[in-house]
Specification:
Length: about 110
């Protein structure tokens, strides 16, 4: 039990210290470059995913990756989040969950 923060303030201190200690390695930069690469063929599908992926990173990690961010992107992220919260609960369950073949095998 000594390894668990005692309260929310202690957790925030732990979280902030852990976040400040993170460093983006060259391997991580290469992986991110491949995952976030936009091409004319994948642009329509990848652009919203890229916006969420980059936008949900802490600013310090975005800076280490060299990923730009702007007020316009922040507004788009917030709009996307609001739209997701409005639409997702109204979708049938089979559309809210991954298809069975993408789920890990059951033990």
């Amino acid at each position: 039990e000594d390894y668990l923060p005692r309260n929310l303030a202690a957790f925030r201190g732990y979280f902030d210290a852990t976040l400040a200690s993170l460093r983006v390695s060259p391997a991580a930069e290469e992986i991110a470059r491949e995952l976030l690469r936009i091409t004319p063929l994948n642009w329509p599908a990848l652009m919203p995913l890229r916006l969420f992926t980059v936008g949900l990173l802490p600013a310090s990690l975005r800076a280490q990756y060299g990923l730009g961010w702007s007020g316009r992107r922040e507004v788009l992220l917030r709009l996307g989040q609001g739209l997701s919260r409005a639409i997702l609960p109204r979708l049938p369950g089979r559309l809210r969950r991954p298809p069975w073949f993408l789920l890990p095998p059951r033990p």
